[in-house]
Q: What sequence folds into this?
């Protein structure tokens, strides 16, 4: 689902995140977060399985993930599109003893930006990409996957995070209506056969079945565009898995996270149970129910 497609997605995304540099980690990775950062723990577990010597975080933000991986004995590298984010990343990581030249500004759509500008390995033992794919135009997905593949050695593990399009079938809100209209209904053929008026009647009927007032559109903090006001796509995990494999990855898995034990607009009916049951579901990222009950997923693959 795309709320808005700006003319220059990268510039709009940089503007959106420009006010989040110093607060993003506290907002989403600490006790202040509305939900535990289960995806960070999932990444840690997979890294511990594969034991890489070096790791590239493509779209590292303010070192949201990297700052908590220092105990694994991995050489950590990262870049981010937003100047304010990478400035905070450099501050945080240098305070933890990591060389400042390992962190730089760059775009995941540019292959040259996957190399540190002042040295470092030409390829890495592992790579992750978190919170980036939603902001990439659809025609650039394959470019990003290919860039990640070329940035690591053969046999390296790569994990890419995306928002789950199929979760819309579970939310029963405006996301569901958009999914029906954008992905499922043969609207062009319906218009040709039944006409515009009947087509609009069908769309109105679908819309009436869902809560169109939720979730609220996320706005910016200081007048900048918010998350839902820039390009913020979801991905179909079934399709994305095929695209990832086509980019040169083998043994591709879909690992789900941020489960919802029941439709999120009903969580106020039993908030404690909703949170406890949802967190319990995080123990199995391969649970098939994740296709519908998890709002996000990782593609994990090994570079061939």
A:
């Amino acid at each position: 689902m795309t709320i808005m497609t700006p003319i220059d997605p990268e510039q709009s995304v940089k503007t959106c995140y420009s006010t989040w540099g110093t607060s993003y980690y506290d907002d989403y990775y600490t006790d202040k977060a509305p939900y535990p950062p289960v995806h960070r723990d999932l990444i840690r577990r997979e890294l511990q399985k594969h034991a890489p010597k070096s790791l590239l975080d493509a779209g590292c933000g303010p070192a949201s993930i990297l700052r908590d991986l220092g105990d694994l004995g991995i050489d950590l590298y990262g870049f981010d599109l937003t100047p304010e984010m990478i400035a905070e990343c450099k501050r945080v990581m240098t305070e933890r003893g990591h060389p400042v030249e390992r962190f730089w500004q760059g775009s995941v759509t540019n292959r040259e930006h996957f190399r540190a500008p002042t040295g470092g390995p030409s390829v890495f033992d592992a790579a992750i990409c978190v919170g980036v794919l939603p902001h990439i135009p659809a025609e650039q997905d394959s470019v990003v996957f290919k860039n990640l593949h070329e940035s690591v050695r053969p046999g390296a593990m790569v994990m890419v995070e995306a928002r789950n399009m199929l979760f819309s079938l579970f939310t029963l809100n405006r996301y569901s209506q958009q999914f029906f209209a954008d992905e499922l209904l043969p609207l062009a053929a319906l218009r040709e056969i039944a006409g515009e008026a009947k087509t609009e009647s069908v769309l109105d009927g679908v819309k009436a079945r869902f809560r169109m007032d939720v979730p609220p559109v996320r706005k910016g903090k200081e007048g900048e565009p918010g998350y839902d006001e820039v390009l913020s796509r979801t991905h179909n995990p079934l399709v994305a898995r095929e695209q990832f494999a086509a980019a040169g990855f083998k043994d591709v898995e879909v690992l789900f996270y941020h489960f919802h034990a029941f439709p999120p607009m009903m969580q106020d009916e039993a908030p404690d149970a909703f949170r406890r049951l949802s967190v319990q579901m995080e123990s199995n990222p391969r649970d098939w129910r994740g296709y519908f009950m998890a709002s996000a997923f990782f593609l994990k693959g090994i570079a061939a």
The CA atoms of residues 35 and 297 lie 15 Å apart. The chain has a mean pLDDT of 94.
